[in-house]
Please model this.
Amino acid sequence: MNWISDWISAWKIPIGPWGRSFFDFLTTNFAWLFDTVADGLAVVLDGLVDMILWLPDIVVVAAIAALAWVLQRSLRLAVGVALGLLFIINQDLWEETVETLVLVVGATTVSMAIGVPLGIWAAHNERVYKGLRPILDLMQTLPTFVYLIPVLILFGLGAAPGLIVTVIFASPAPIRLTYLGITSVPKPMLEAGQAFGATKRQLLWKVELPSALPTIMAGLTQCIMLSLSMVVIAALIGADGLGKPVVRALNSVNIPLGLEAGLAIVVLAIILDRMARIGREPER
Model:
């Protein structure tokens, strides 16, 4: 029965050559656009990293701990954030941590800026959601290494393609959770707003978004965690940060370096997760 397989493979659909022709077309005609985007993102990311590194480490640690207290009104959290960042400084991974923090915050900001409006639009238009759903399924099920090939071809090496890959990977979470939050708003609340003569815009801002806020913020937390999970993979295409020492440790079987960088990623993940949570009673 092997002749059947041979006959099928003899008529192989030329997906690879078609893809190569498509990317050749893009790089030939739109290289200027991709280079402009990559250079612009690199300038912004590198500028933020340089600005933070210009400040004394302790000042940055104190500022982040103060921000944690402002967000959560928790002295215990603020102290924990400060101790976690001091541990990272102790491990001599402060510069890499700042690079990772800028990348994660940047990717999360872009993902939320894309995801929340799309989620709201999809929640109010079923056709939009039906069109988005297969795309989101593809983005979430496609192996992350597959993202690297086209992004590397179009944008080259560096922080910019790392940011783009991270946004592609993380943005489905805020889209889905925003859609879930808006569609889960109780109908009596909407009917009460309509009974008082609220317009669609007023219903969105004064009824739907406040009710859906916990779910949207869960999307923010998911987005942060997904962005952090891309740190090591983004390092493979030249993105700086804590992923680089992890990759070096893997290549050289350097267990101490791998443990140090891995623990720094865990500490940063815990800090960002705790700071991004809302709706909890403040800790004392």
About this structure: The two ends are 72 Å apart (CA to CA).
